[in-house]
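Work Package 3 (structural annotation) set out to generate three-dimensional models for the target panel prioritized at the project kickoff. During this period the team completed the workflow that converts sequence records into discrete structure tokens, so that structures can be stored uniformly alongside our sequence database. As a representative example, we reproduce one entry of 687 residues exactly as it appears in the project archive.
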Amino acid sequence: MPNNPSLCSLSALSLSLSLSLSLPMGSRFLALSRWVLIVALLVGLSSETCNAKDNSTKCTSSCGNIHNISYPFRLKHDPKHCGNVMYTLSCENNITLVVDLPPSGKYYVQAINYHNQTIRLVDPGLQNNNCSSMPQNFPPFLRDPYSAYNMSGYLLSTPVFYIKCSNPVNSSLYVDTAPCLHINASLVQQKTYSYVKVGVMEVGDLNEGCSAEWLALALLSYPNGHNTSYESVHSALMYGFDLTVYWPDEIAPICQGQWSYNLKCFPHTIPGFFRFLCEAIYVYFSRGREHIDYPRWFPFKTIRRGWLPLICFCLFFPARLIFGVPCLIALVIYKWRRRHLSSYSIIEDFLQNDCNFLPIRYSYSEIKKMTSKFKDKLGEGGYGSVFKGKLRSGRFVAIKLLGKPKGNGQDFTSEVATIGRIHHVNVVQLVGYCVEGLNRALVYDFMPNSSLDKYIYSKEESMPLCCKKMYEISLGVARGIEYLHQGCDMQILHFDIKPHNILLDENFNPKISDFGLAKLYSVDNSIVSLTAARGTMGYIAPELFYKNIGGVSYKADVYSFGMLLMEMASRRKNFSSMVERSSQTYFPLWAYDQYNKGNDLEMADFNEEEKKIIKKMVITALWCIQMKPSDRPSMNKVIEMLGGDVECLKMPIRPFLYPQEMHVGDVQENLNSIGSNGELTWTLSAR
């Protein structure tokens, strides 16, 4: 390899496991002012030469079965100029080589392939001709420590999971370890069964009553559990696993046009230059001069390292004056510019980058003026409070003043991004918004007839809607949801369809509102990914809890609409604790049984036409709340069912899941597993 100075920077002499110096903004300014002398001395580090490179590549050594150990590897007691210090191996009893692989521990080195740039390791806990021996080290997971910045992208070996089960498992994915690991008396007394799973472990691969106890790596293909013995798996473990090795020299071409040091690249900018200097200073003080090949002109080679703090201390005050004053001015300007912007960068970045955004941005003082200093309060919920306001044009609006945001304001950006780009007669219209400091507000059209829940549940003070009007409202809601699913360039999933989020205008036309939990997906995606359950208890689709019944899709909104439609038809909550008999507690099951027997629902003061409307709504709702998402119709089909004749509707299968059948332990377990991510979105409505 030619002796190219650009390829021989200090970056060629460090391993990818080297620590990088990471400082917050304030500490970074202070560090720069303290190291002004070193800034001047190290400005040319990126072009230094490697005088010791040729000598390091000429060294060879051997230990046991491993011969011709050469650059970048070296043995522990080799001369200092041999190999690279970060690739040091040790020789024990002249039998095998041992490499200390953080954070796992020691491994035996079986072979080094300089052509393929791989090193094969084996766990010291494994023994030949003893299949009961197990690995003692947990391998470096998800990161190859010998690969610079994990440039290989993956380990070259296959993971082997050790699994313990309380009951016998008959699965093609599992390899039984008997009799190798069943000779342990403690396993027999505990009545546990041991298996291994070769290959990537998916969540669904772990059977009930089983837990993954250990992980090893092996050069092994993905076998069928019934056709593979544990002895062959153990033999593969004894053969070892491969890690990729990136020679330190090879990082330099990747950093062409940039400063390179410690296997890292730094752009030719002022911040990049100072980051580069911080890295060099850190390595110097943490490892010492003996680990670095310095250029000839480097002054600290002849200066004792203990003198450096004294030299830097003497230059601290002038450096602080030179660098501190400009930094202070820059900080004041930055704070002044950000004073009237949102405190949440996610919100501000979204508002500045969305070119198609149409609603008006109001100041917080304008919001206070619209609401007469928040005088007329319409309601309150987990999201914040709603106040009645009036625009200068005389138009009445409802102003939603949001409380503390979730996830850096992601709930706010979700609602603004979703509702700000759609216009439909059955979707509430976003007039404007406010983002100023910690204050966030959304301005909507005012709905004089409030929300649908006030008309569904029987109250003496509320005037109930007639059956025909309730049917028209349900049809309008269905059209609004269908528009969200198919009417836009992006598929919008609401995830919180319920009576509280259906607003009614002066003519009782329904408007879907509250898009705080909504998600936007491509219309081509039939299945969407969620990191947490979202919605309101009683309206959440079962697939958000039970992943094995189907993926999460637009059918989740269909389920929520079905529960809403059932409540609109019955004028009551689907689950009532006032009924003593459990068979009558859950209205959908009771209604299904009545229609299945050929009986009509007993409802007073309803004529025959109204009974047909109610039956059509109930049967459509029963289709929407089917357990499996694949059994539910699309919203387009729902509109067709609601608009057709009731005689043409077929009865679906009996709903499988209802509150009495949902084991509290199962739901709690799902909530705990989801909540561990810290991303659970949950709304409990007190009605």
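The chain has four domains: 1-150+246-291, 158-239, 345-445, 453-675.
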